[in-house]
Design goal:
Elements: E1 2-5, H1 13-19, H2 30-39, E2 45-52, E3 55-69, H3 77-87, E4 95-101, E5 111-113, H4 119-132, E6 138-141, E7 157-168, H5 174-179, H6 183-198, E8 201-207, H7 215-228, E9 255-262, E10 265-275, E11 278-286, H8 288-294, H9 296-310, E12 315-317, H10 323-328, E13 332-342
Helix pairs in contact: 6-9
Length: 362
């Protein structure tokens, strides 16, 4: 049986109960999904579940973007001009309702496959159902997991996507991590830590349940400030100003805040998410008026690395953007593949749509 809903609560009770028992990433667990329904601006979530005899076989979580202007992705000037000409007669030409598959505010795949199903087969069925039901005219999706497991789906084009970054943590301590760096890099890290301390800065690691309620708004403003300066990727999800992270107080302590302060004032944060043997660096927020002189951005990373090592995580997923900084800290680039599929019933020639420049959320 197939279930397709636009809110988590509208799923059948038996599915919601099972959702907590299947092995899924934190980014599509029910508390995060329900939080994002409240906090993401203009969010149209889609939950697609295939179940057999009450057992979940396949899950897709996505965000439906209405009338997405795909002209912005075209790099061929001749094609751009043709589209603009057609728009003189039809302003919505080359605009599609596109389902972006993925965990909300996340680079995670947004999918779950049970061991008994072939993920290419069930995804093919999903694609057909989405198009036949007119739920969306296009589907955009990325890797099944961070190791670039590929899908083989008809009527789908693949193309390189912004890489993810991963920092493996085979270290006994942060000192061990430092000793594995080249001398110049080791000196640079210690120097940035020294300057951070001399400026009167400090760092705290705080479980989500221990965050002061009034501090959520401060953390949100730092996040929003940082997002405004993110020119490396194109994002389609933004938190709503009306919530200002207030809904985050209901999340579990799998969400861990690393908070930088200057003379007691919050000047930056990194939000980590615990997921078994890995940590995910979900969000960063900075006060740019003091970031350069305090090296707060770097020190948030150093503390995240120390936290990961001290708590025996195997690796940290650090996301896209600021690749130079992350590689300098020891991160590996994980190549990613993106896919886009347009409903065959669309009469336009959409082949040029596949030359895209899309990014992640971090």
């Amino acid at each position: 049986m197939i279930h397709l809903t636009y809110s988590f609560e509208d799923l059948p009770t038996i599915i919601k109960k099972q959702w907590n028992n299947i092995k899924i990433s934190r980014d599509i667990q029910h508390m995060w999904l329900k939080t994002c329904e409240k906090t993401i601006k203009d969010y149209t979530p889609i939950y697609y579940v295939k179940e057999s005899k009450g057992t979940i076989d396949f899950v897709v979580v996505g965000d439906l973007i209405k009338k997405l202007d795909c002209l912005q992705f075209i790099q061929n000037d001749n094609v751009v001009q043709k589209i603009l000409e057609k728009r003189k007669l039809d302003n919505d030409y080359y605009k599609y309702d596109v389902l972006f598959i993925g965990g909300p505010m996340s680079m995670e795949a947004g999918t779950y496959f049970s061991e008994c199903v072939d993920y290419s087969d069930v995804f093919q069925e999903f694609q057909k159902n989405i198009f036949d039901s007119k739920t969306a005219e296009g589907i955009f999706f990325t890797n099944v997991d961070i190791y670039d497991m590929h899908l083989s789906v008809d009527n789908t084009i693949s193309f390189p996507y912004y890489p993810n970054t991963i920092l493996k943590l085979p270290f006994e301590s942060f000192d061990d991590y430092l000793n594995n760096q080249k001398a110049k890099r080791r000196w640079d890290i210690k120097n940035k830590q020294k300057i951070f301390s001399e400026q009167g800065c400090s760092i705290e690691v705080i479980q989500n349940s221990k965050i002061n309620e009034e501090d959520f708004s401060i953390l949100y403003e730092l996040y929003a400030n940082t997002e405004k300066d993110n020119f490396e990727t194109i994002n389609y999800q933004y938190y709503c100003d009306c919530d200002k992270f207030q809904s985050f107080k209901y999340l579990t302590d799998d969400f861990i805040w690393i908070i930088a302060k200057l003379n007691g004032k919050i000047i930056g944060f990194a939000l980590l998410v615990h997921d078994e043997s890995k940590l995910t660096l979900k969000h960063v927020g900075l006060d740019y008026s003091v970031n350069r002189q305090t090296y707060s951005y770097f020190n948030l990373f150093y503390r995240a690395i120390k936290f990961g090592i001290d708590n025996h995580y195997r690796y940290i997923i650090c996301g896209s953007t600021t690749y130079g900084v992350k590689v300098s800290l020891g991160c590996e680039l994980i190549d990613r593949t993106a896919y886009i599929s347009i409903d065959k019933s669309k009469s336009e020639d959409v082949s040029d749509l596949y030359n895209l420049t899309l990014g992640g959320n971090l």
